Structure formats: structure tokens, C-alpha cells
Amino acid sequence: MSTFDEWYAQPVLTGKLVRLRPMVVEDAEGYLTASRADDAGAEVFRWLALMPPADVEEAEQQIRAALAARARGERFAFAQLDVVSGAFIGTTSYYEVDPDRRALGVGHTWLTHSRWRRGHNTESKLLMLSHAFVGLGAARVVFHTDIFNTRSQAAIERLGAVKEGVIRKHRIRLDGSWRDSVQYSITDDDWPQVQANLSLALQR
Fold first, then answer.
1. Predicted TM-score of the model (pTM)
2. Considering 4, 139, 163, 190, which has the largest number of Cβ atoms within 10 A of its Cβ?
3. Alpha helices of the chain — where are they, by DSSP H?
4. Tell me: the pLDDT tens digits for 39-56?
5. What's the CATH number where 130 sits?
């Protein structure tokens, strides 16, 4: 069983495609480039509560906001790096970390468009879930997504997560409207099958 402090630590997690490490302000240039790659920034950021950064200064502001959330114990953001090139390709986070109940969330994720459907997101989720269930001894991992984001819902369901319901007026969208969120979970009972599913998906 992990210690309390380990739940709030951010180890470097490395696979064959993706390396996850704590995001830092110095990532701003890569963050900006990844967010604008293929002129797909609007689609990449469509369901997030922030706009694609217009310049390095805005990229730094978004990273500093994530670091402030880390300092408050609210969210722990990782930089997603391509293992082969070393390029910054997106971010993902742990959030709602609760060591007493052995629970946390995985989300606040975006991935540069050129890495969609290439296994990077699948491996990133496998790394994060493996650390949660094996490294920390989590009993439960949750995911939340906008009720209108059917692409994200399908991706979460492919992981093997169980849909638990809809949380009404859960968050506020960038335009100020209320967002209903679909909530999913994976428990430690589900984990062996989920791990097998993800490992198989990466072999295809």
C-alpha cells in the first residue's frame, strides 16, 4: 500500500510511445506548437475550459494555472512527450485525488492532432491507470466528460470503464453555460480486464 504523500507525487511514467512527466513552465514553446499543429487547435481544445493559446505568453499562463492547481492539491498535470522525438504532444492530469478513499480522477487531457489514433492516448491511459492501481493501490478511478462529447465517451467506454450516470450542472463551459458531465469509473475489480484490453489495443 502506498503512503499518503505518494498520492500527491508525480513520478515520470514511460512507455514505448509516450513519456509522462510533471508539466513545467519551460514547456510553453512545445505546448504552443502542439496546440496549433495541423491547424487543428480548435478541435483539440473544443471540449476544454480554455482556448488554444495564441502565443507563448498565453501558453505560459495556461501552464501556470495548472501549476497553481497543483499547489492547491486540485489537479496534477503531466506533459505528454513523444518517446521517439521528445516533442511535447499534449497534457493529461490526475485530479480529485483522495488517498483516504483510494480514489482519483484521470482527465483534463488534450493531445496534438497528429497523434490521434496512433496509440499515444491509449498508452498514456495505460501508464496512468497502472500507476494508480498498481503503484498507489487505488480502489477507484473516475472519468468525467461533457454530455455532448460523444467522441470522448466512446473512447472512455473502449477502455472498459463503466458508465455511472450524469452529473447535472457539474462544470462551467468556456462560454459560461453549465455543463452536464457523464461519469465513468474503473475499479480495482475491473482493472485486470481493462489492463488486458489496453495492452491488446496497443499491439494492433
1. 0.93
2. 190
3. 28-36, 41-44, 56-71, 120-130, 150-159, 191-203
4. 555 676 888 888 889 999
5. 3.40.630.30
